[in-house]
Design goal:
Blueprint (H helix, E strand, L loop, with lengths): L5 H21 L4 H25 L7 H23 L3 H19 L17 H27 L7 H34 L7 H20 L6 H19 L18
Helix pairs in contact: 1-2, 1-4, 2-3, 3-4, 3-5, 5-6, 5-8, 6-7, 7-8
Protein name: Cytochrome c biogenesis protein CcsA
Organism: Proteiniphilum saccharofermentans
Keywords: Cytochrome c-type biogenesis, Membrane, Transmembrane, Transmembrane helix
Length: about 260
């Protein structure tokens, strides 16, 4: 499996996800939307597995490869949210956002080869990045809910239900981020001799973690505002974006130990 095959698997997956999202609006039963979304995920996972075998390493090194996982996990987060809280629009939202990342990968693919620097050959590398990508997808779904709330605030009937869903997504997302940070610390100790060095990437990871903790603690206040909570959630997601790829454009990142995508 080579990167040239990606467009065929991606288009097939997006068609299945889009069909599932469309059926979610027109049907009270969850079976077909869930089935079509799952089939799309299977198609996409076949490509990831094939690329993994072809590269003889986890496809997690370059930004394009992490976008690949993010494109996969977004519909997963959307499907879980749909099945648990029955918000039909979430499937279409996550499908659209996943498609955006897929298009970016088609238009601007990174170089994919078998070279993997020694630090990335650690068994902690794959679970660290995969867990982080899953958390990013969950928190991306939560951010879509926040945007939906702010745009349609006056038309939402059951705000308490929506806030419960948002809180649950954030709890799951920050739990995964915390686990990813712990695995990353173990990996760093083995690879570089220390658990934490306040490297630019690590600093923004800590800022992201604190951002979501602020949301959680604010929500625990009895006098908390739903609108302010959603704004905090969007700010935290902006911090997440800086941590994921924005930090690569900072001058301080040029000497970062996390600059290993080239």
């Amino acid at each position: 499996m080579t990167w040239d095959s990606f467009i065929y698997f991606a288009i097939s997956a997006v068609v299945l996800w889009g069909s599932g999202a469309a059926l979610a609006y027109g049907s009270k039963r969850k079976l077909w939307p869930a089935l079509l979304t799952t089939l799309g995920l299977i198609v996409f996972s076949i490509f990831i597995a094939g690329l993994w075998m072809s590269l003889e390493r986890p496809p997690l090194r370059t930004m394009g490869e992490t976008r690949l996982w993010y494109s996969f996990f977004l519909p997963v987060a959307g499907l879980l949210t749909y099945l648990r809280w029955n918000y039909k629009w979430i499937l279409s939202f996550t499908t659209v956002l996943s498609t955006v990342f897929i298009i970016v990968n088609i238009v601007k693919p990174d170089i994919h080869n078998k070279v993997l620097m020694p630090a990335l050959q650690s068994p902690w590398f794959a679970p660290h990045v995969i867990i982080y990508m899953f958390s990013y997808a969950i928190l991306g779904a939560a951010t879509l809910v926040a945007i939906y709330y702010l745009v349609r605030e006056k038309k939402i009937n059951n705000k308490a239900h929506l806030m419960e869903m948002t809180d649950s997504l954030v709890y799951a997302g920050i739990a995964c981020i915390t686990l990813g940070m712990l695995i990353g610390a173990i990996w760093a100790k083995i690879a570089w001799g220390h658990y934490w060095s306040w490297d630019p990437k690590e600093t923004w990871a800590a800022a992201t973690w604190i951002g979501y903790l602020l949301y959680i603690h604010y929500r625990l206040k009895k006098s908390s505002s739903d609108k302010t909570s959603m704004i905090l959630l969007i700010i935290a997601f902006i911090l997440l974006q800086v941590c994921w790829y924005g930090v690569n454009y900072l001058p301080s990142a040029q000497q970062s130990i996390h600059t290993y995508s080239s």
